[in-house]
Design a protein that fits this description.
Pectate Lyase C-like; binds calcium ion; Immunoglobulin-like; 500 residues; 5 helices; eleven-stranded parallel beta sheet
């Protein structure tokens, strides 16, 4: 329900903020995504409800050059992204989306899962003919192609930006298990590219001049049966790789990267990356160059858990590529990095801590402040029929309760607030929690129980506080003095219970 409310608010703002722009819902207003796009005008949004979308009109979807947004109901919620699925069902000559009408970054695709595509170029998405959309927060998984299992980008003027996307378990018959670039300049940033397979370039296959940019990506557990476990760049190709993790990729030759061995020399620049083996994993041939810039390291990135690609069966076991707090990648990216509007794979702001981190995840450095928590009633009768409990939150000096992000508040790590209000001139936030939900967290409590309330301020600062209350498991025997500071309403309620 909360997500629905958030979505409605968001959409309301969207409508209010752009005069004349319309929101088209799929499948409510239109049976297919393509039908909704065909009916849309510049500035409109297509909002796709959770569900699986297949068949004509739901694959090889074209924006037709329109400056529109195609999105799930909540691109920031991984559950919604994972359950809003464009499924091409492995049918030949299908893919999720094709951009070929000169789209710009005003054509936005965000918060969808694209799977089951099978094509010659780009099993999930293909951009060509000077088309440069903005693609973000998508999951592109289990697609296949001859070149570029997940994404193919053709021709020099196609410069899409693909950010905060998870690109896994795609495969290509010839090259680029995940990505194929021919003379084009895509920018991949804050993406996880893992568990993809191809004979050449397990993750990326790039040739002809175009300057592909790979920034702040985590490229791991990809495999090539021939060469270039992560990257293969050749025939005048050029790439700029910065703030990336290349780890645990495998190939018969050049486990992380093969630069040039076919056609004219290629050129790759690498800076502030964590590359397994450094030059031992990177092979340059035929006059090609690898420009090793500053800040490269070869240290275990210390993921929460590493993934694995079986080199024989090509079966991929997913990892959790968030950094742990002792990771050498934290704050080890380019110190000159300017965050701008960039986000990490979690949708969180870049530049937490002293500098940008290497890889797709920015480790959130948070400070925790104390909160003074007072829970009412002071004695909770598990047999009473009340609907609400009340909690006041007061923060340490220097912090304002009005900065608390109400949606982030949790009681005993489970219960979210039903309502909250900070009154003018008061330094407290008054929060109501559903009584039954609170009691569910206290089912084992006897005599007394700990109430822990946590949450965030808008800047990411965490607050935490606790209170101990009595637990009564019988008819109410509480005396009014226990409720001396409570409202008349609560006193009346207690009085009614006591009389029963
Ligand atoms: Ca950092
Ligand atoms: Ca993060």
């Amino acid at each position: 329900m909360r997500n629905l409310k958030t979505t409605i608010c968001f959409l309301g703002l969207l409508i209010a903020g752009s005069a004349g722009a319309a929101v088209h819902y799929v499948p409510t207003d239109y049976p297919t995504i393509q039908a909704a796009i065909d009916a849309a005008s510049g500035g409109d949004s297509i909002v796709i409800n959770p569900g699986t979308y297949s068949g004509p009109g739901n694959y090889s979807i074209s924006f037709k050059g329109k400056a529109i947004t195609v999105q799930s109901t909540d691109p920031g919620d991984p559950y919604v992204v994972n359950t809003t699925v464009i499924d091409c069902q492995g049918s030949p000559s299908t893919r999720g989306f094709v951009f070929h009408s000169g789209e710009t970054s005003d054509s936005k695709l965000t918060g969808l899962t694209i799977t089951g595509g099978d094509n010659f170029l780009g099993g999930g998405i293909y951009c060509y003919n000077s088309s440069s959309p903005a693609i973000s927060k998508c999951v592109i998984t289990a697609n296949s192609a001859v070149f570029g299992g997940a994404v193919a980008v053709g021709n020099n003027n196609s410069q899409p930006t693909i950010s905060a996307c998870t690109i896994t378990e795609n495969s290509a018959m010839v090259g680029g298990g995940a990505i194929y670039c021919i003379g084009s300049g895509p920018r991949f940033e804050s993406c996880i590219i893992a568990g993809n397979f191809a004979p050449r370039g397990g993750a990326v296959y790039s040739h002809n001049p175009g300057n592909s940019i790979i920034a702040n990506c985590t490229i791991t557990s990809n495999a090539a049966s021939v060469w270039g476990g992560a990257f293969y760049c050749f025939a005048s190709g050029n790439m700029d790789i910065s703030n990336c993790i290349l780890w645990d990729n495998t190939a018969s030759s050049a486990s992380e990267m093969m630069v040039g061995n076919v056609g004219a020399p290629a050129s790759v620049s690498i800076s502030y990356c964590d590359i397994q083996g450094l030059s031992a994993g990177v092979v340059a041939n035929s006059g090609s160059t690898v420009n090793w810039g500053q800040g490269n390291i070869d240290l275990d990135p210390m993921f929460v858990s590493g993934g694995q690609m079986d080199s024989i069966t090509k079966v991929y076991t997913k990892g959790n590529y968030h950094l742990t707090e002792d990771s050498p990648c934290i704050d080890a990216g380019n110190p000159s990095f300017v965050a701008g509007t960039q986000i990490d794979i979690d949708g969180e702001s870049r530049l937490s801590g002293a500098a940008v981190d290497i890889g797709a995840d920015e480790f959130a450095v948070v400070s925790t402040i104390n909160a003074d928590i007072k829970f009412r009633p002071r004695a909770l009768n598990l047999r009473s029929r009340g609907r609400w409990t009340l909690c006041t939150i007061k923060l340490d000096d220097g912090h304002d309760v009005r900065d608390i992000a109400v949606d982030s508040i949790k009681l005993n790590n489970e219960v979210k607030p039903s309502a909250a209000k900070a009154f003018r001139f008061s330094k407290k936030l008054f929060v109501m929690f559903n009584r039954a939900e609170v009691e569910n967290t206290l089912s084992d409590a006897q005599g007394s129980a700990l109430i822990v309330v946590t949450g965030n301020l808008g800047d990411g600062t965490v607050f935490e506080g606790q209170d101990t209350i009595k637990i009564v498991n019988g008819y109410c025997n509480m005396k009014n003095k226990t409720f001396g500071k409570l409202s008349k309403h609560f006193k009346q309620k207690c009085g009614k219970i006591c009389k029963k």
